[in-house]
Amino acid sequence: MNERIAAVEIVDLSFSYPDGHPALRQVHLTVAPGERVALVGPNGAGKSTLLLQLNGILRGQGHVRIHGLEVAEENIRRIRALVGLVFQDPDDQLFSPTVYEDVAFGPIYMGLPLPEIQERVQRSLAQVGMADYAQRTPHHLSVGEKKRVALATVLSMDATVLALDEPSAGLDPRARGRLIRLLKTLPQTLLVSSHDLHLVEALCPRMVIMQDGRIVADGDSARMLHDEELLARHCLSEDSCE
Amino acid sequence: MHANFIDPFHARDSLLHHVDPRVKLVLAVAFILTTALLPPAAWPGYILVFALILAVAIASALGPFFAIKRAFLVLPFVLAALPVLFTTPGEPWLHVPLGRWALTATAAGLARFASIALKSWLSMQAGILLAASTPFPQLLMAMRALRVPRLLVGVFGLMWRYLFVLADEALRLMRAREARSAALAGAGGSSVLWRAKVTGYMAGSLFLRGYERSERIYDAMLARGYDGEVRTLPLPPMARSDKAALLVGLAIVGSILALEIWVG
């Protein structure tokens, strides 16, 4: 991939839900390949909606480009192979009867030959430390295990951009620590929506704050997370915006 | 809180558990067909079939009574066959006066009714042993191998996957209701009507949650390239011993059927 082309380029993107509720207003965002960016903001700020735009599940007015490729009907299958979307609730992400079939789902739909599908499933499960769980049923896994398998379902597609919605929600501290360490080993471009400011600090050097469908701040996580006044202004501290 | 108890699969290290799921599915269907095709009152045939299913139960290491007990679940449905008691022509056996009319049960009717009950009970045992010895994902694979429409198998798979998720949600709702079902000392309990209403709300809420979840699952499928076509991994090859088991099993049920037809 050409290093100078942005991994994600969002230009003047606006989106309203069918009920007329505007969820995104004139969003501009450029993410370089390999960058790890956190999307933070109060509930309803538009973080999840923005992630769903990245591979065309939702489409608004404006432009979204992934490695220079426009998110549009004619490119949609290539876009979906490039962008791995991991949903907040792993029970939504893992819809197959077994872990193996779920991780194989993406590669099957990419039309890959069988030996390559098998190789990718094994590699992705090993990468997230779940190789021994291939024949298990997702229902029998713990939340932390489900989250890791959910990540494997997009790693097996060799996605270059990973969009993770609240990856640490519902995890105990140990499982969360393990997930952060795992995410740090990934070379992919990462867009992470999260309320978990500790995860943001540990994982993402860059942070984008969203509020009311707009990007209201964008910069260095370490600096922004210690700017009490900034956090309070955007309803990110405990007694702000009351 | 997990609703794992609704999974009929019982893990054991038995002969039956190691047989290829395709063989088990074909033989279970063949067994049920054979049992259904046995003529009424073919008692020796029923004993043969019962011996066969008992042998399978013993080979499953689940205990001989595992399926026998559970198969009684079928009995309420057998009541649907009650009219044959009175509609089968033959020697009168019992008069049931009903005001101006009287129903006459015949001995042939009784034999027929007993046959239906027995056959349902025996068939049910085959289904129970199949489900208890085969994990559901493997059963789905067997259905695909038998050319059950792929979309239907896909729907079964999703249903099975989310049955547990929905059951978990229902358990949580019920627990939340329990937690708030308080009563003051001396005050009576709530009325049946009120409780029915609460149950109705719970069912509605489960339906809505299920609906919303289905939308999110569909998005998750789209995100990974789903295009409306159901695609799956190719079927694994079948071992020679499993092929042999299939032939032997089919020969046994086939000969029971042939024997009965020849004798009868």
Main features:
heterodimer; A: 242 residues; alpha/beta; Rossmann fold; 6-stranded mixed beta sheet; 4-stranded antiparallel beta sheet; globular; B: 264 residues; mainly alpha; two-stranded antiparallel ribbon; 11 helices; 2 strands; 67% helix; flat
Using the coordinates shown, work out and report the CATH topology of chain A.
Rossmann fold
Global morphology of chain B: flat
Full CATH superfamily name of chain A:
P-loop containing nucleotide triphosphate hydrolases
Q: What structural category arises from helix and sheet content of chain A?
A: alpha/beta
What is the rounded distance between the termini of chain B?
Answer: 55 Å
Structural account:
The complex is a heterodimer of chains A (242) and B (264). Chain A has helices spanning 47-53, 76-82, 90-93, 99-109, 114-127, 143-155, 173-184, 197-203, 221-225, 228-233; strands at residues 8-16, 22-31, 36-40, 61-66, 69-70, 83-86, 161-165, 189-193, 206-211, 214-220. Chain A has 242 residues and is α/β, with parallel strands linked by helices. Chain A has a single domain (8-233), classed as Rossmann fold (3-Layer(aba) Sandwich), CATH 3.40.50. A 6-stranded mixed sheet of chain A has the order 6-7-8-3-9-10, sandwiched between helices. Chain A has a 4-stranded antiparallel sheet with strand order 2-1-4-5, covered by helices on one side. Chain A starts with 7 loop residues before the first strand and ends in a 9-residue tail after the last helix. Chain B folds into 2 domains: 4-135 and 237-263, no CATH class; 150-181 and 191-223, no CATH class. Chain B is built from 11 helices and 2 strands; from the N terminus they run ααααααββααααα. A two-stranded antiparallel ribbon of chain B has the order 1-2. In chain B, helix 2 runs parallel beside helix 11 (240-263). The N and C termini of chain B lie far apart (55 Å). The chains are: A alpha/beta (242), B mainly alpha (264).
